[in-house]
Specification:
Pfam families: ATP-grasp, PurK_C. It comes from Alloalcanivorax profundimaris. It is an enzyme of class 6 (ligase). Its EC number is 6.3.4.18. The chain has about 375 residues and is an alpha+beta fold. The chain contains 12 helices and 18 strands. Strands 10, 11, 12, 13, 14, 15, 16, 17 and 18 form a 9-stranded antiparallel beta sheet that branches. Helix 1 crosses helix 10. The longest helix has 14 residues. It starts with a strand and ends with a helix. The model has no long low-confidence stretch (mean pLDDT about 95). Bound molecules: adenosine-5'-triphosphate and magnesium ion (2 copies). One magnesium ion binds next to loops. One magnesium ion (MG) binds next to strand 15.
Length: about 375
Amino acid sequence: MNRVLVLGGGQLGLMMAEAAARLGLVVDRYDPERAVLLPGTSDLAVPITWEECLERYPVITVEREAFPDTGLSARLAASDRCVARGALATIPDRFDQKSMLDRLGIPTAPWRLLDRVEDLAAAVGEFGGVVVKARSGGYDGRGTWIIGEGGDTGAVPAEELAGRAIVEKKIPFRRELSIVGARNPAGETLFYPLTRNWHVDGILRLSLAPAVASAALQPQAEDILRRIMEELDYAGVMAVEFFEQDGELLVNEIAPRVHNSGHWTHEGADWSQFDLHVHALAGVPLHSLNVHGPTAMVNLIGTPFDQAWLQHPGVVHWYGKSVRPGRKVGHANLTADSLDGLRQGLRAWADVLPEGFEKVLDSELSLG
Ligand code: ATP
Ligand code: MG
Ligand code: MG
């Protein structure tokens, strides 16, 4: 089997390396910030330049879209060993990403470029409520400003963003859903069921899979993700975030990698998204996917590890990172026989999690 290199030193690459190790395959990680190679699941850091590192691996994947400005992104986008090269040339800039969706005729929130400061007022006039998004570099709601209908745009640093942002129509969605799927170099594809996601302050708090009442939307979601993966000639796992509005799916954004809303697959499916990603790259034929009962994934955000969690149903995945407000430091998966059982399990978690999680439970836990 080919050794696979994953670029990025975070938890997503580590979870890929763990999945690979269980199958006797090898995924090594390169941390571009520290310029070190992390072999397999080890944290023994070997100093190396990225040029040297890239030379050694026949298959290169990524755990994120943006890299330090060292020429690495451009080099990857040009390398035929990088299975995400098409995605890296298109996805990191929201202008290119939205232009691709429009070109493919895939529904997405209507949008305009924010090139000049006046474009913001024009978009408010056209759309009513708007969402301003930096073209690149944003995540977990950073680089995003949501302004409801009639709201004040004063908080948007429009001068600073002019030429570097887009403005979208604010979508009055019924719910947020995502799909995670894989494509191998032969063009075979495989998909998990649609997942429902709850965000607070731009950060994913809770996912539930399979999303209830989503069977009619599943073929539409699969078709959209398949077309995007084909367009980008992509191999590995990719995710698409959607807004559901009037029974239709609008694409919010594309993540060309394993995705937080797919973390439930660790306990909620026979093969996790990390297994699937490694299989797609290692030439293991894509196989059937058996999904277990309803599964919830709770993000552990800005909180120290608490042994009380272990008294509750569910499996904790802790990333071993330093704890900072708003930082994702782990997640917990709960699987149950029924939605009622899952609801009870989640209530128990609400007692031992910091503020923010109750908001989701109190306002949204119809689990629909
Ligand atoms: P991620 O961490 O998922 O990469 P991000 O920082 O790239 O997030 P988005 O996913 O674009 O940002 O937006 C964050 C959240 O803001 C969305 O999940 C959604 O709740 C809300 N949002 C974004 N765009 C819109 C929109 N056009 N209409 C309504 N809500 C929106
Ligand atoms: Mg994003
Ligand atoms: Mg998002």
